[in-house]
Amino acid sequence: MERLGRxxxxxxxxxxxxxxxxxxxxVRWLTGFAGSAGTVHVMADGPAVLVTDDRxxxxxxxxxxxxxxxxxxxxxWLAEHHPAGVPLTVEADHLTWSVVRQLEDLxxxxxxxxxTGIVGTLREIKDDAEIAILRRACAITSxxxxxxxxxxxxxxxxxxxxxxxxxxxxxxxxxxxxxDPIVASGPNGSRPHHAPGPRTLRTGDLVTxxxxxxVDGYHADMTRTVAxxxxxxxxxxxxDLVGAAQQAGVEAVADGVGTQAVDAxxxxxxxxAGHGEHFxxxxxxxxxxAIHETPFLGPSTxxxxxxRTTVTVEPGVYVPGLGGVRIEDVVLVGADGAERxxxxxxxxxxx
Length: 351
Fold this sequence. Notes:
The chain has helices at 2-14, 24-31, 57-63, 78-81, 97-106, 118-123, 128-148, 158-171, 233-252, 259-275; strands at 18-21, 39-43, 48-52, 68-71, 88-91, 112-115, 176-177, 182-185, 206-211, 213-215, 218-219, 222-227, 284-286, 293-297, 310-313, 316-319, 323-326, 329-333, 338-340. The chain has a 6-stranded mixed beta sheet with strand order 4-3-2-1-5-6, sandwiched between helices. Strands 7-10-11 form a 3-stranded antiparallel beta sheet. Helix 9 packs antiparallel against helix 10 (259-275). The chain is elongated, with a radius of gyration of 23 Å. It has 10 helices and 19 strands. By secondary structure, the protein is an alpha+beta fold.
């Protein structure tokens, strides 16, 4: 219940008397309950309840020990658990307009107020249990890459590589995939989010693989770019540049550092090498129960890194007609720097 205590402290600081948590990821973080039907109602100075329905009553009791469980498919429970006249704050980013209208129609005297990011901001700082799970997810991902080096070869299609990565992570103990893997070979490497398709890998290709294991709801996210045979000098220079930029970004990560400063550490180096226009996305993002969560590391996303936050550092260079390179790690923010949780080799490997 330590997370509930942190939430109540944040509510008091923000002047929130009662909060309705409807985002499934936030519900899971607060309670441990991962079912598809769950809502949490928290009073800043009163009780908190987890609301689900009869399908999940037994599971909710197991997943969320210590929580009061309410089983109700309607909003009728609010009359009993929310004091009359007390404003109700809702997660504006996750509640539909139709549900807001339903809540208004239930009680015209209950003021509704929007809030954004109150639980998500708390989720940025990981506790020991979360860090341990993320370590396992990242270890599986790194090992899957190591194993892929033994079978990755010309003649396979991008789709076949993606499928084998999924199978390998499952064999290593992953619950699933953190997201649909990206496998981009040869000229397809210029597309940062290329969907793996029927293209056959060829000698001389660079192959970018972006994938991650899912463990107990937590996501790993790693990208490596390898060569099939000897790449051209221009491709090797691009890989060297991205590797240097990624190293600079990781070295910039520390408690209290601005997110834009980490982005600049990568982006400035790439720009100065003449590839500024070929780096078209942010340098990274938070990762945990969601594959993309706050904080975001980009040129226009202000924020400050805090110790025990996990973020990706993933610069890339994408040149149409030539190909591309991305190198990405999940890193744990520490007081004086960053620890890479994904540990697979980052140098250019020629297979």
